[in-house]
Give the backbone structure.
Amino acid sequence: MSITNESPTYLQQRLFYRGRKFNFDVHSLRLPNGVEGEWECIRHPGGALAVPITSDGKLVLVKQYRFAVEGRVLEFPAGTLEPKEEPSVTIKREIQEETGYRANTWHSLGKFPLAPGYSDEYIYTFLARDLEKLEHPPQQDDDEDIEVVLMTFSEFEQATLAGELIDAKSITSFLMARLFLDKIND
């Protein structure tokens, strides 16, 4: 079997579900090799995530209940992009709402597909530094149950290796931040 750069032919697209944060589509396709089949896709507007670091080198994370895995997940603050909203605007709002911190220095670390086997969602990752604690507690959304957690880099790495419930976008973004910081500190 040879691999080509040709695109598949779309035969049919059906919207199965329209939700408040994503849609679920089923597509009938004919691949360049002639094989026909159906592929499901979650259509998501994307998300923005911050790796916040305090002046004393602690990571600011949140632990929140996630229904899909029926448990409290350790993750970096993040949020879904609003229509026509820039990722940098999304994350500046989310970091304040979820953690009660504001960052004065931002670095874009790039973007990556979250789960390309079944979703078109991209995560835009930022490093947030020069944090200041806001006077008022975080203004969490009604459907959020969030605890703010401070950890050292080593503690986060140990939690990851120990198999604690940490989402993939946070582990990936931590690695991106670590590589960025290592590069600028060389």
